[in-house]
Amino acid sequence: KKKVILDVDTGSDDAIAIMLAVLSGELDIIGITVTQGNRPLANCVENTLRVLDMLGVGDKIPVFAGCPQPMVRNLTVGRNAAVPDNGISKTVDGVEYSIHPAYLDLPAATSKVQQKNGVSFIIEAVKNSPDPVTLVPVGPPTNVGMAFRMDPTIIDNVEEVVFMGGGVDKGNITPVAEANFYHDPEAAKIIIDSGVKCRIIGLNATHSAELTLDDADKFIATGTPAGKLTGDLIRTRIEAEVVLGGGNGCSDAIHDALSVACIIDPTVITDLRRQKCDIDINGGASDGQLIVEHRNENDTSVNSYVAYSADKQKFFDMIYNAVASQK
Ligand code: BDR
Ligand code: CA
User: Looking at the predicted complex, does its ipTM rise above 0.85?
Assistant: First the structure.
């Protein structure tokens, strides 16, 4: 089994990614590190522990809080503004929608976060691992960027970094920037520039495999707690996007779960291009943008791979089989 460290900002799509990673049985999850992103750090930690408790592995998979702020920048107030723990809601045409993507309707966690900082955990775990470790940042990649800065020697024992981040000519927080890279572009740049193998699962791929309200019903119909949570979260995301003004009311991208899916089965990504990448950190209109070199795609000195599309049916089946298998 591949050894992985998930690095999350849980978050509804992070929650589905965690469920897929655990219930697939295909990965050796040696730990989960948490950063700020969808919510402030403490809320993301609590959400992560809640999901693991629901899966019955709260005492088996250690969770570490990492950086409460991006590497260089201060928190972006809008993204991290405190919202009540029961989420926020908005009434549209008499219907109340829970519109915060980071509200998980689960009992408060009983498992506890580890004392060690997430960055220290990444460094020690990668150093001590007999096999190379796959790092999976699906939030702002602060913890991994910080670990690479503190101890660049660990890069030798990293199999690859599989990001959820970026988009080619596509943004979701500015016209050209995706939220995870936008919220810590320096960290993303440090990782990509390090020369480590990177697979970048961005908005082009995740939006090519959107899950639908019908899919949500199928997950719920499995009758398992994970199936119900997955279906509820997908439904909430689709409804929330409509309220927030960007959604089509039928489907939404479940970004982070696609990054986990492609570690279990790389063929879920149907168009992956070897391309030199950079991240704009200049603070202007394209701040946080993933910049992709479209020339020289066969340059073997390039170690970054960008996903452009995914197999929606395969992606659905992987999540379905995982959540349906919950005992
Ligand atoms: C990414 O940003 C986070 O809010 C989501 O969990 C996902 O990782 C999408 O841009
Ligand atoms: Ca995330």
Answer: yes
